[in-house]
Every structure is written in structure tokens, then in C-alpha cells.
Amino acid sequence: MRFPLVLVSAVAAIGLGAADARAQVSDNVVKIGVLNDQSGLYADLGGPGSVVAARMAVEDFGGTVLGKPVEIVFADHQNKSDVGVAIAREWFEVGNVDMAIGFDHSAVALGVEQLAYEKNRIAIAGAVGSTAFTGKSCTPTEASWIYDSYALTTSLAKAIVAEGRDSWFFITVDYAFGHSLEADATAAVKAAGGKVLGSVRHPLNTADFSSYLLQAQASGAKVVAFANGGGDMVNATKQANEFGLTKNQTIVSLLVFISDVHSMELQAAQGLKFVTAFYWDRNDETRAWSKRFFERHGRMPTMPQAAVYSAIRHYLGAVAAAGTDEAKAVMAKMRETPVNDFYVKNGRLRADGRLVHDMYFAQVKTPPESKGAWDYYKILATIPGDQAFRPLAEGGCPLVAH
Q: How many CB atoms lie within 10 A of CB 330?
């Protein structure tokens, strides 16, 4: 599917203010749908916490836009792309949902992204690693707010290889997200002068990693890299410690959420190095918002939960600026306006839908370094957005002239 190179510049002429009598809101309500894993292995990283963050964003915006109410709905896609797309179709065709957000699963996100374009709705990805979302599958009505596999792996692999750990073996979850993580990490390892000795793939939601860990151990690789996330990453890391892999090999996780560290506890997670988009304790602004979130949810926010809040606030501001909830007009305003909040400073939404922002190279603290619950990360370095993310011209997005 290819789209015209000129995106939505014509809508800049709309220029309708929030109080303008001509302001148009379909169905007299702006409805946002949070679609993610509410009960499975990815529920802690997004799940109900993302719904809490979405409601906070609407409340902080004032509960209305263009004089119309803003509603939040949510659903569980069960980590199944057909279920996710069916829910989104019902939302767009019957439920009057204007924007779907979250997903936290690459296959679901890729399906909903295309459907949203067909129905002239907006799809905003949270924890979605596949670079295809803003690459070959990009559409004019999507955005990706946190990371992709390029941002998660490229800086990390370069840093690890530079430390002399130059032979790698991958344990990879077998769907689009894992494949994308492994591919981008492999490219970065090789570009840094390292080599990949092998890889093995496991099904989503695997309980027993013993056979995969034995293959990694037998490879003799200096680095065993987990190209998975959520419950899979937690189980793999715990079992790697039990198998004694950490005595002779370095464990690297290509995706870490604070909920993972909380689940594993510092004894198992200590020393993990990774790239993240958000940490609740990074500065006064992140702490203030995160403490509000904690009061509502009882846990500190993950980066997907923080991103849901950020994206919805930006979306509602764009609806107000456009004077309409029509998808392409809103997307034009979202691209025109920099993103500045506790989550992102000077973020900019590119033509391919990628929100470009700083990422952070982090390490899990040792138990003695931690001062208490949720005091888990050390921020080692800031990776500027233009270095963290794949260059626009290299993504293969058909909306971008090459």
C-alpha cells in the first residue's frame, strides 16, 4: 500500500480555533480507545496502568475539547492480532472511537495501523518494537511514541561490543517484535566489529527456557541477548541465573521495563544494561507526575504508561488546534507542534510517524545501591534523539521521498 508524498499540508488552512462555531467533532464526543494486554504477560508494562494514565491525561486536559466530552474506552487484545483488529474494527465502525492507542504488541499494532488508515482514524503505538510500523507499513494516520527495535538495540550493542564482549547469541521471541529486535541488534553488533554465533526462537509466553539457555551456553558466546519482553524476559533472566549462565557469560536484555525489574527483584536483575525512554526518578518533573500515578495505581509507571499520557495530551491539544477530530487534520497539528512534557522535551513527530526524542542508557542498581522500593535504575548516558532513532530516509516509509 502506497500513499501520496504530500501528506496533509492542505489541512493547515483549516485554522479553526477551539471556540470557533465551525468546530467539528464527529458524534459530539472525542473517544479514545486503549487497546492492549489487560491480563497476560504484557499486562504489567501497559495493561490497566495505561488506562489509568489515559484517564489522568483527559482529566488534566479538562475533560472536554472543543466543548465536547472526551471518553476513554479500553479492551484486551489477548496478544492476538486477529482479536486486536476485530476490536479496533468494532470501535471504528460502531463505537465511534477516534483514536486507538497502546497495543504493546507489534503484530496487533501493524494490523490496527492499516485499519485505522482505511477508516480515517488515528493509531498511536506505545510499546511496539517492529520498525515496520513507521517503515514499510507506515500510514499518514499513525504515530509511534516510545521506541522501536533500532532505538533499543543500536546504542546498546555498540556500547557492549566496545567493552570487549564481541560475540553474541540471541534468544528471541518468535513474532514480528522479536525478529525486529534481533535483526537490528545483529546489524549493530556486526557494525561495531562483533560477531553473532547463533540464535534460537521461542513462542510467546514461554514458561521453560531451559533448552534455549543450554543452546546459548553451548555456543560459547560472550553475550547472551534476550530479544523478548515482559513476562518472557523475566522468566528467561531468572532461569539464566538459576542455570549459572551469568558466571561465564553476560546477559543482555534488549528491552527492560521497570515492572520487569520489580517482578524479578534487584538480586536477579542487578547489572542489566539497557536503553529506555523513561524513568520515573530522572528529574523533579518525572517524579511529580509519577507520584500522582502511584497514588492511583499503586505502582510506579512504566515507559508505555507514561507515553500513553503524553500522547493523549498531545492528541487533545491537536484536536483543539485543528478545530476538528478529523484524523488527517489532527495529525497535521500533531506534527506541527513540538512535544514538551514530563515524558519528552522538544520531541518532534516526523513524516513517518516516529516521535523523535532522547533515549537513556541505563543500568539496574545492585541491592546495596538501591535506597528503597522502585529505586532501580542508574542513568549512564543520554542518547540524543537524532542518534537514537533510525534516519528518516533509511526506514522505507512510502510517505517519505527518497
A: 27
